[in-house]
Amino acid sequence: MTPFRQARLAAQQLRERHCGEATPTGIRSSDLIACIAAVDAEDFDITLARPDDSALSGADAVLVRAFRQIIVRDDVDVPERAFLVAHEFGHWVLHPEEQEGCRKVIVSHLNPAEDDTLGAKRVEAYGARERAELQANLFARDLLLPHALARALFDAGRTAGQIAAELELPLELVRQQLLDAVLLPHDAISEESPEPALSPTIEQRDAARSDARTSLVVAGPGTGKTATLLMRIEHLLANGTMPAELLVLTFSNRAARELVDRLEAAGVPGAHEMWVGTFHAFGLEFLRKNHERFGLRPEFGVADKMAQIALLEPHIYGLPLRSFNPLGDPLPWLDQVVKTTQRAKDELLDAEAFGTMVEDSAARSDADRLARERDVATLYRHYESLLRAHGGLVDFGDLIMLPARALGAGMGEFLPSVGRFRHMLVDEYQDVNRASAELVKALAANADSLWVVGDPRQAIYRFRGASMRNIVRFEDDFPKHRVFRLNGNWRSFEEIVRLVEHTGRDDNPLQGVLPLDGVAPIRGQGGLRPTLVSCDDPSIAHGELVSRVRGLQAQGVAYRDQVILASRHDTCDAAAAALVAAGIPVLHLGDIFQRPEVKDLLALLQLFVDRSGSALVRIAQLPGLALPAEDLDLLLAHLRRTRPEPLSWLTAPPIGLSVAGVVALQRWRETFAGLSARDSPWDVACTVLFDRTGWLGAYEAGDDLQAVTRRLALWQIIYYLRVPDGGRAYQTVGTFLTRLRRRLRLAEDRDLRIPPPEAERLEAVAVMTIHQSKGLEFEAVHLMDVDARHFERSDDAAWLPAAFTQTAGGVDEAKSEASNKLYVALSRARSHLTLYEEKSYYKAACTPTVQRASHLLDRVVGTRVQADTTSTTHRTAQGPSLPVGLKEFVTYRTCPRRYYYDEVRQLTPAAGLHPAVRIESAVLRELFVPHGGEVSTPVNDVKLELSRLPEDYEVTRPHLRAYADQLLQAGRAWSGADRVAVAPPVDVVCDGLPIRVISHRITRQGNAVTLHFVRAQPSSPLAKQHKAIRWVLKHLNEAYPPLRFQGSLHVLSTRQTEPVVAYGHLVPDFNLTHFAQALSVGQFSAAPSSWVCPGCRHFLYCPA
User: Fold this and answer.
1) 624 CB contacts (<8 Å, ≥6 apart)?
2) pLDDT the model gives residue 675
3) What separation in angstroms does the CA of 42 have from each of 35, 135, 138?
């Protein structure tokens, strides 16, 4: 049982023991607390004290265990006081050791502070003290408002506000309990039977009982690594070590959670007193205890990547950069700069050391690379000065680098923080980075023993800075150490073990340095070899997958004991969709921002910031907010024409609405009353969902896996709305939406793809990437698409200086990691292993390691077909307006659905476009008027766009003005005038579709006609605009002989012109021909893309 389920169970038992059967309407918090504190119950004295009372020592509440007393600050109202007392009851029941006073309980849990960052939230649950506080918070919530009661009250029609008032509870507590009760899978919480103990091998016993000061345990998959670590802890405790003297560190949050769960389940005495958590959690606690030494505030924030970019971006414009152009859209290169700085910190390189490295390697770098590296060094130095300003922030790299360097320089002044740790244990050592290894060295120098466990062949996190060098060259850091090898595999049958063994040796550079020992399969043979299914295309692969998943389930392998693994998220998405279409329960959230229920909520938030009201096309279909179609069209036309303040149209609607429309808008006014774009998205969402509409009712019903998954996705996104990022970025609806789009563009949403732990018990097939499967095991593994391209060597980012490219004692880390990824995937299987090969890709080839394992595999040819049900064709009665403009055709080529919103529905939201893109469009409107238009008409499009920039971009306004001026000057130099009319349109039929070509200028020399086009930024010759122009030029040449049409593209930002040449012969299935035919018949299907969609202005309401 997890510590958090244990907290809920303990709260449930305490409430039932002292309060009996509660009334259907619940118990007021003051009565509940009095009942539990009564003499004939827990016999507690609840004492109020001033916040400055010495008894509190600055805390919100203090548990005085010896006197059965809880002291609470007296300046909070009854609901908050009840929560504080319940929190201390949680410590009383769950944590027998003495606790320090609990600080910032209300602020951190009921009302997140500005320094309560998303980065900190990712770390805190995996530190010892923070975990105890979270347990106490969860205990308090369930004691005051159990899930079953919260759901019953909500189903009976009570709003969150009514529940809070009637039961004297904090509104935030009610909201959180309602979210959990309504949206999370709910099952009865009860004591769990412990797993049967296995008799350890001699190797495990020897490793656990090691008397060496430094021990390295090399443990392959399934060899009982975690069990051996637990045996080591029990051995130390049995020999006189106190629990508080143990420090257990691991790399991943999942590994930390598993260790805590296993310690609890094993009943290890004093488990709560041990420090068990991730390296980052340890670093966070260390820096908080020693904040003054590092010039930090007591409650500093932790900046994740998006917060780092938001911190740096406003200040890039005045820096002397040579390689990077701040004007335009800097997000792609800022992303790489931030990644590079974090990798530098992984190697213990601060900004000064990084700059020195760049200069030391200058003679070996070409001019372009050197300019880029010097820019990165400049940005790194400036970023560090911003990060340290006012002591308000650190980043993830700092959480390890700063403690490692400080402790490495001398332990003395930090002994009060870390001096108690006599024995260190480190899990997953192959995944640590250099900074983590140096931190271990520094701590181990003061400890009696260091015991680390890992497996270099499971090192697959190099992209996060991990380096197998630390375990391969362990003797460099710890010359005197003893090695233990665990070679007994408890997990897999022999047939699977032999294939995994082959993968760990075949073509893996590690084999020449650390040969893989023979592995003994303790379970013996299973009688079934792994299978490789060769499939001609994805439909066959999915058909075989569906059939084999069902077949295993029929043989007794439950769905929840099967997993689909893949290298890429899109492969996972496609496999999950195939299983769902076949009626097989699947646990897979995928990209939650593409899910309909999440888009409903995001579209609702967009209404608060978008003058065009474009999101109405989606919101007007929701329960309680439905609007007649005719009224919707009338309202959208009114907003397109007048562009009023967002939601102001609720009090000043257009004339001509139907009676039903007037009634609907009255409901809208009631729903959104008192809410604005300056409110937090959490407040807006909770108010609408729990107090103003019955929207959640549509999702509450249904117990099938798809209904459960919809609720899980909503739970993920609503809690995501709640946490600020340290820079006020998520504290208003407007800033949240701006940051969200940027986060999605950089694919920084991976944490939201992972279902919460409450979903792990569901009877459903799991679908995940290979990296997500690390540390897990399943009865049956289905590994999709074992194509060689997914298991190839991948180098470090090209942005890193050459000195960063490292080898692990002569081992090619990048190549070895490619082999390791396959090794990890195969070794997740206990009894059944199936690999799927797809041949439809260009030059597709099964990974060579698998090809050379034919003697260990049964190879079959796939024949079953699963029809593709994921794509749908969207047609409308209203086709395109002919002729279609060339620019609009390029839009259709990008996404037919975007064309539909732009041209058919004429939706014009500004939200979603980067400010630089909006400025570029405004510049072109100032430079050019339509053919025949009046060029002398005053225009101020750039000024207007600058005035409408989101608040996040306030500091960039003068720089964007300068960018606009630069483009305007270039455009006027090209045209020779302040403003000119574009060339007359040229019509031509291209593959049956009438196209109207509007160029910025047309010139002619003899029979040669040149169409001149102007754009703000350069594009690739393979870009959609280039191809469309070449296609149109070909048809113009065919339509107007003997004229020879050619094109040119002039780029304002570079002032360079490039020619565009007409296509010659086209292949019969040329893709633009297909698009022309589809547009002619009014097909407007969406073209979902993880790269394109987040940048589309229609993203938040598009059904793609």
Assistant:
1) 667, 671, 693, 694, 695
2) 95
3) 9, 20, 20
Q: What is the largest CA-CA distance in the chain?
A: 106
DSSP code of residue 795: P
For residues 632 and 553, give the distance between their C-alpha atoms in angstroms, rounded to a whole number.
Answer: 48
Both tokens of 140, joined, read 């308090």
Sheet of 69-73: strand order equals: 45-49, 69-73, 61-64
Tokens 């975690």 locate to: 226
Which pTM value belongs to this model? 0.88
- Quick one: which H or E segment has residue 604? helix 596-606
**Comparing C-alpha atoms, which of 961, 782, 959, 991 is closest to residue 889?**
991
| Strand, coil or helix: 553 | helix
Per-residue HEC secondary structure of 300-322 comes to: CEEECHHHHHHHHHHHCCCCCCC
d(C-alpha 790, C-alpha 848), whole Å: 12
Q: Nearest to residue 710, comparing CAs of 576, 587, 579?
A: 587
Nearest partner of 469 among 442, 497, 432, 505, judged by Cα: 432
What's residue 881's pLDDT? 81
Distance CA 215, CA 758 (A): 36
CA dist 982 and 965 (Å) reads 20
DSSP 787: B
Q: Is 217 helix (H, G, I), strand (E, B) or coil?
A: strand
- Long-range contacts of range 328-333, CB-CB < 8 Å, 24 or more positions apart? 328/916, 328/920, 328/963, 328/1016, 328/1017, 328/1053, 329/914, 329/916, 329/917, 331/742, 331/745, 331/746, 331/914
pLDDT on residue 222: 95
d(CA 455, CA 428): 7
Give the whole-angstrom CA distance, residue 207 versus residue 806.
31
Question: Which residues, 6 or more positions from 760, have their beta carbon under 8 angstroms from its beta carbon?
Answer: none
Concatenated DSSP letters of 560-590: GGEEEEESSHHHHHHHHHHHHHTT--EE---
Cα–Cα distances in Å, from 429 out to 208, 401, 474, 803, 1036? Answer: 16, 17, 10, 23, 65
DSSP per-residue letters across 137-153: HHHHHHHHS-HHHHHHH
What residues contact residue 754 under an 8 Å CB cut-off, 6+ apart? 589, 772
Identify the CA nearest to 55 among candidates 65, 63, 44, 43. Answer: 63
What integer pLDDT is reported at residue 728 of this predicted model? 45
**Are the C-beta atoms of 215 and 207 separated by less than 8 Å?**
yes
| Distance in angstroms (rounded) separating the CA atoms of residues 359 and 377 | 10
Torsion over CA: 594, 600, 601, 605 (sign): positive
- Residue 1004: CB atoms within 10 A of its CB come to 9
Closest CA to 738 of 755, 725, 752, 751: 725
Spell out the SS3 assignment of 340-397: HHHHHHHCCCCHHHHHHHHHHCHHHCCHHHHHHHHHHHHHHHHHHHHHHHHHCEEEHH
**Cβ atoms within 10 Å, residue 641:** 9
Low-confidence ranges of the chain (pLDDT < 70): 1-2, 21-23, 97-129, 187-198, 328, 390, 724-730, 793-798, 802-810, 842-843, 868-879, 911-913, 951-952, 1104
Cα–Cα distances in angstroms (integers) from residue 677 to residues 111, 193, 606, 945, in the given order:
19, 50, 9, 19
Q: How far apart are CA 133 and CA 128, in angstroms?
A: 9
Closest CA to 380 of 15, 800, 786, 734: 800
pLDDT at 1083: 92
Give kind and range of the element (H or E) at residue 1048: strand 1044-1051
Neighbours of 814 (CB within 10 A): 17
Residue 200 DSSP symbol: P
Which DSSP letter does residue 431 get?
G
Helix (H, G, I), strand (E, B) or coil at 861: strand
The whole-number pLDDT of residue 726 equals 46
pLDDT at 495: 97
